[in-house]
Amino acid sequence: MNAPLPRTMAWLLALALLAMPSYALLMGHFGAQRWPIRQLILHAEFQRVSATQIERAVAPQLAAGFFAVDLSAMRERLEGIPWVAAVELRKRWPDAIEISIREHRAVARVGAGRLLAEDGSLFSTPVAAEAMDLPLLSADERHLPELYETLRFAERLFGGPGSVREVALEVHGGMRLVLADGFRITLGRNAPRQRLARFAALRERLSAHPLGPFEAADLRYSHGFALRRASPAAAKEES
Questions:
Q1: Could you tell me the domains of the chain?
Q2: Is the pLDDT of residue 62 over 60?
């Protein structure tokens, strides 16, 4: 069996353990003075997030110095900045922190007050989403990927980004599209893309039809579609 530690050695070990927190605090204090952080190296798009916002977010952590700086706390503060999608942090010897910021790229408004990012994530911003010039997707979260794919497909058919104002999920499971000019299209669950493409190929000809102008189309029919004429007031404004 190992012999027990002499009483003096045991006391010394106990004192050393008690002194360790104080030593760590002192080293952190002197380390911050001896190895301060003097540089922030920023990599960002600076479209929605500014350098000032980044600097303000990390400032409380910089006083700890190069060795004691808490990168996890710094990352948490940076991720709290609106429009920040991802953060990468690195220490660069001897006195720099390198910060890489990736911003959200909003592609659509979702319901009330949220935005859909290009990568499929949802986020909020201090600025009202309704004020942004983006198409609206109206559905619960599990159907958003389907609506977004329909939006992109319809934009290719009707003139590119900005040509579709809204895509909404209907109660019966189909979808409703509102184009930039206010024209409404109802889609069923069966072959929606094929029917939408068929209608898009004819829409320009329909705009010159003597019975027009039309304000809506129902594409839920197997071998054709139904058109609704614009109201007299709308028709007069159109002419």
A1: 35-103 (3.10.20.310), 135-238 (3.40.50.11690)
A2: yes
